[in-house]
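Incident log entry.

Two folding requests arrived from the same account within the same minute. Monitoring flagged them as a possible duplicate submission, but the sequences differ. Recording both here for audit purposes.

Request one:
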Amino acid sequence: MSDLTNGGGQPEPLSASDREAARKHLERILASPEFAHAERLSRLLRYLVERKLTQVPNAPKEHEVALDVFDRGDSFDSRLDAIVRVHANRLRSKLAEYYQNGGGDDTLTIEIPAGHYSVNFRQRRKAPDTAGDAGGSGPPRERRRVTFPAPVMAAALGFAAVALWHTREPVIEPEPVLEPKPVTVYDGLESDPTLSPDGEYVAFTWDGEKHGNTDIWVQRLESSNPVRLTRDAAETFRPAWSPDGKWIAYLREAGPAAVELRLMTALGEPGPLVATLYGSADVAWMPDSRWLVVSDAGPQNGPNALFLLSPQTRETRRLTTPPANITGDFRPVVSSDGRNVAFVRANRLMVQKLSGVMAPVDRPRLVFSGDPAEVAGLAWAPDGRDIVLCGNAGSFEYRLWRVPMDGSGPPRRLSHAGVAGTRLAISRPGGAAGARLVYAREVFDSDIWRLKIDAAGQGSMAPLVASTRNDTGPQYSPDGKRIAFASDRSGDFEIWVCDADGSNQQQLTFMKRYTATPRWSPDGTKIAFDSNAKGQWEVFVIDANGGTPRQITNHPALDAIPSWSRDGKWIYFASDRTEENQVWKAPAGGGDAVQVTKDGGHVAFESFDGKLVYYTKTSKLDTALWSIPVDGGEEKEVLNSISYRGFFPVRDGIWFLSRVGRKTRIAFLSFADGKAKDVALASAAGNGLSVAPDGRSLLYASRRRIGADLMMVENFR
């Protein structure tokens, strides 16, 4: 077979023998170890090859591939769903891996040019055997290293770089040495920085010397004398300094789910109440200081969306419409020209383009998804081309990252600044000096607590597993003798196990990436967990005494938060593979997953008798608990408010957590009378709940901020 593309890239006619040789080569590739278990990649490769061999005139478009290969619907939007690009990049890398290994001696190669969804077939000559002397004598080599032509190798490296962007940990590129210095070093928690337009002052929140409610304070960056701006019995937070320097917008707690958006002058003189917002509200200014961008869930507690809001006229204009089954859009920041709003949607960084009259242009554009796994704060870089964000990748420890706003490259970690950074602000550059970057450096600690329940149904609690790092997600083994939990005490989150009294703590997994959510199998011999060790969240199973983990799911979507069926045959998990978060289940021994819920699903546990699946629908801190028959049927609301992952079904009821202000209620819903009884009030409990088989003790994680200070980087560019 000759080279099947001419200099202009147009396909030459394929003979019958050419097509037969290509199909044989395809089957050889698909049977190789590299592709034997890569179902999606194999399907994509076969589709592209067959399309070429049947002489379809044009290369398929991304939309066609999404529908034909990945079963997406007509509503598929490549700006929001990168499944085709991700798999095409993986396919290029997998082909390169094949040709470097078992396919090193193949005389035919398949290439997929960058930026296209088509294939080219290339004939290549075998490298001469130089194992012997000039006359060709001597034993042949068992394996020859294949040297690709320079253009092919360059393309392969390019493909690998793009694939790494989607599937590997973000690269750490050299950055100018940044030397952060403290701005505040006060006892307590200082956070939410916002800078004055001239970059000379910072307004921030602080819970004060007595660790009471948070108030808004202001301080000159070169000083250490903070001035208190608000004195309120309610929490005040999220200050945002207007670009003209006249106003500071801020939020004031006004109820369980509501906040007031208020204005005050930079001297703390009270201004008007602008609006009442709901959900996890956020606020930012437009460059003209006449409009605000707010994140609001509305009184019906729907997903947070972004709106323009005029403080003078109270006029509102919708900017974004997130899907109904996610928590929504948060942390808006506006570019200096007012033409782009960056924000976070389901831990994906998005940018909404605006017209000259501040109207949304098209849909929001996806900038990146993946690591950092969680984004806690955003700011526009001084050049207006990059976005600086606070995020974590591999642990609870946040860092600062920089990412091109057009999505042309992966996040680059700022290696000399931003450790433990969360909220941040960047001033505009002044003259020859660069801008100032200020961020909150927060330190968290999460420990595992045990609640013992006496005969009267009352509880007493005490820490059971504690360290200077984060210990979370505890689960009792079925016999109650051991505990599995997740901890970042080794640097990355891994699965650990210990005895029921907290002794004999041992590391079980060594994935070296964010690994968590341990769940014991009903017979106690295995533990399921989730991990992004391969660049995306998947579900794994490991022997309870250690060993090599076995991967259960393999899909470009997020697959996480596993739990076992009562018979041990299935593993439930949450997945957005249908573009909506739903509960799925996969055979514990491996195989195709089956969708369980249809109207949203997140955390799931089977009932004690194995007849029902209890589940939440969202990742909100406050959410409802639902049930559905294991074999399908009508869903039913069980509890209207529980805390995130905080529920655990037992034989005679359901234990659950729910928030009460800053505290967490630990309660029990009895099946006998359908009533919920409060057992204890804990401090900041969350991220998991487990009950011992005898029902006499519970485990939960309690996370608290140890402290937070503001740090500054001068001449940030």
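Request two (distinct sequence, not a duplicate):
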Amino acid sequence: MEKVATNSYSVNGATRWHYGDKVGFGAGAPAGQVFTKGGANDLPSDIRKDLVHKPSQVFRHVEAPGQIKAPIEAAKVREVRFDAAANTLYTVKEGVLEAKSQVNVSIKTGRRDSLLVALPSDGVKPLHWRFPSKAKEPELAKGVKAPEGYAVYELKFTQALEGGIQLDVVYEMLLDKNIDTLPLPGLKVLGAAVESGAIGLTAEPGIEVTPLEPKELRRVDVGELPNAITMRGGKVQLGYTYSRANWSLQLGVKRHEVVETLKAIVTQAWFETTVFSDGHFKTAATYVVQNEQQRYMRLETPEGAAVLKVFAGGEAVKANKDGGALTIPLPKNQQTVVTVVYEVRDEELGFFGRRTLVAPRSDVRVGDVQWLVRTPVEFAVFGVTAEHLKEKGDDMYRPPAVLSSGVKMLTRLPNPDEYNTRLFTIEELRAKGDAPEITLSFASTPGSWVALLLSLLALALLILVVRRRVAQEPLGLSGFAALLVGVAALVLKAVGWGIGVGEAIIGIMILTAVAVWTWRARGEDD
């Protein structure tokens, strides 16, 4: 109730009276005074523009009013009118129905210091309430007649509110595992003059829901639903709106077997291993990871390996150790390039030596693997064991363009003239399967001049044999000896230094020319 200065007056003026929320002035003119009932337009314009509330009564007077006396009606309750609009997203999960509701209450007249919200009483449990001026957690209302099948909760405010009020309610209903029909539990705001809203339906994978008996609902496209529903997460499958509180909807529930899919997969992988003359080797393992829901990638490096650096998405990261394995964080729903650089120390190769190279073992399925191995030229590889791996020509190697400069610097790419290369491939590595291995047997070799000497020796001896055969001369013991020594020299050259395509072509051309020249010379002699 607005205070009135009862000993003030204004000649040719008007007086405005306001009711409070629960107490107001009595009807009619003040007792013992000469007033004429008026309207708000009778008030001066400078007063009207500052009015917050519409005056309850206005009286005009032409003389000084003197002391004003007016009856007061105690406990005069003003009518409070409000509307409510509820937007609810229902999610059907295995064993539970979850509802997230946003309720917008619009108070048209008066103020409210509390609201009554009704939820179905059969198996429905409120989990969370959020609203302004929250005095305490809502409790079951006492002395309030609840609608049939509902429980009423009282939401109390620390002060009387007016205008718009937003309520957020999360509640759930436990479901029997064999349930095949489900009535949606609706929320009601008691006392609302108009109660409207919208609902959205979604279900987790493996559960299919079908509307059976919609009442007082209008089917709408999901795109027409308010953001309060569509922005709450999950793909909304069905949408409805309503303009009356007595709506209902029965759902048919059907369960399907869910096919387990990979949470992450490596689409391509590259291993680059360099074996050094002092016996240790260094490996850079690079993976292109297509991740959906996996939080980490676990990599088990070979026993005794020292991890030098870990990269993820082109940036150096700190990986954790988990039971001897590296755990590398992965961002969800995107592609990430992961690189791990490690080295293994061992004894020098010596005159003869053997090294087993072991790739990392991953908890993610790995496809399209290329493994490039570099060995020093001063050690010839005379034996290779690589189970499940196929050896390819190193000219088929597709180096990863995803490596950062930091990775390349750490791997210290050697001078190609100082190292021989071998390429191995494998189509797929199973998650948590055996790590691929390559075992190389080495033999120390002399300098490059020995390779040239072996090539010339093999070529000379083979020319001798070809000439005798084309001339139809018997090889004899010396011929057989020349053939054996020439082949042995050729094999040593191939094992120790390899035979290039150019070398092979030149050798074949020389032997062919010798054969043709010898054949023609024999024809002239005949």
